[in-house]
Amino acid sequence: MAHCFISVLLITLSIHLIASVGAGAGAVYNIVDFGAKSDCQTDAASALLSAWNAACHSNNPATIYVPNGKYLVGRVTFSGPCASNKINMQIHGTFVATSNYATLGRVGEWIVFDKVAGLSVYGGTFDGFGSGLWACKASGRNCPNGATSLTFRNSKDVLISGLSSMNSELYHIVIDNCDWVMVQGVKINAPGNSPNTDGIHVQGSTGVTITGASIRTGDDCVSIGPGTTNLWIELVSCGPGHGISIGSLGKGYNERGVQNVTVKTTMFTGTQNGLRIKTWGRPTDAFVRGVVFEHSVMENVQNPIIIDQNYCPDNKGCPAQNSGVRISQVTYTDIHGSSASKVAVKFNCSPANPCIGIELQNIKLTYSGAQPAEASCTHAGGTASGFVIPPSCL
Ligand SMILES: *[C@@H]1O[C@H](CO)[C@@H](O)[C@H](O)[C@H]1NC(C)=O
């Protein structure tokens, strides 16, 4: 962890920032007072947990304060319910995961918030130290799956503001089974070739807003799983990575649908996909209904607009390649820029459940090759209005 120690030196030389947690924040629990050391080698997990427990048991609003510095942090779960519904975490420092992926990578999660109502996390840098695991995966050896850096589960009224997450072993941030989550101004950074390092994954959650994010990863920028409703994504830049994806959906038979998703004012740079809906070619109860994609700029994106209902890795377990996922009311408005492949718009829907109510309006996607860009439709129906380039095939 040489890189860790160098930074510690720089931080000891720097002036420590004094917390400004705002009036009315109630008691402040500084993790250093609970024994945390920013020496990058003492596991701060138990100090964090002690500070959490004190804050969580407080009947008044409480703040857990993490001063500047680098803290080695092992696997930790911050559990509620808490006595008050106002728990703040004010993080000026960096949390560094162990470089020993053999242990963390098998448990699957690094830092988890569970069953908390009224949680705000301000700032913080989370370094998942994933490079060792990625190298293992690239070598073809038998490696652990990896750990998601930050998970918010079974929680409501959550604010995540100004957080940075880098080099996760697996996903950077997962929002699972939550109500009302605001994710604002987060930065996510991992190399374009790092495996499965999705930026933000949302599932089983309602009322999640992601705004003002910059996400560079080796996998999906934002992925949207089963049971996501009332999701709002705005002002997000993606790339490198695989773009914003609803799915994969429909792997299981009894699966909750995805409904009412808005993705607006997004920028994709050199990504594999732009705006994607992806379902397994398997029978299922799942659906996707009411999606608005608007105001997107594509720069050199392989598949700027794509619905792919024939996902079936290794061609196993997909009888007739027929997806049961019913896709309806999906609109694309004001999407422009450049496609890195000739087919800039691709609707490859299910023969058993054709896509219905797709709307295209004011689309202009160009291809830099010798031929103009094309649109391709299979089992897809809907309407086009305004200018639509390439010409609609609906
Ligand atoms: C759709 O979701 C948005 C939040 O993203 C919400 O404001 C709106 O009320 C929802 N619409 C319906 C019909 O539930």
UniProtKB/TrEMBL annotation:
Span of the signal peptide: 1-23
Organism name: Carex littledalei
Similarity-based family: Belongs to the glycosyl hydrolase 28 family.
Molecular function in Gene Ontology: galacturan 1,4-alpha-galacturonidase activity; polygalacturonase activity
Keywords on record: Cell wall, Cell wall biogenesis/degradation, Glycosidase, Hydrolase, Secreted, Signal
Enzyme class of the recorded protein, top EC level: hydrolase
Described purpose of this protein according to its UniProt entry: May function in depolymerizing pectin during pollen development, germination, and tube growth. Acts as an exo-polygalacturonase.
Pfam families xrefs: Glyco_hydro_28
Protein name: Exopolygalacturonase
Record InterPro entries: Glyco_hydro_28, PbH1, Pectin_lyas_fold, Pectin_lyase_fold/virulence
Upper classification of the organism: Eukaryota, Viridiplantae, Streptophyta, Embryophyta, Tracheophyta
E.C. designation(s): 3.2.1.67
Transmembrane region(s): none
Catalytic activity entry: [(1->4)-alpha-D-galacturonosyl](n) + H2O = alpha-D-galacturonate + [(1->4)-alpha-D-galacturonosyl](n-1)
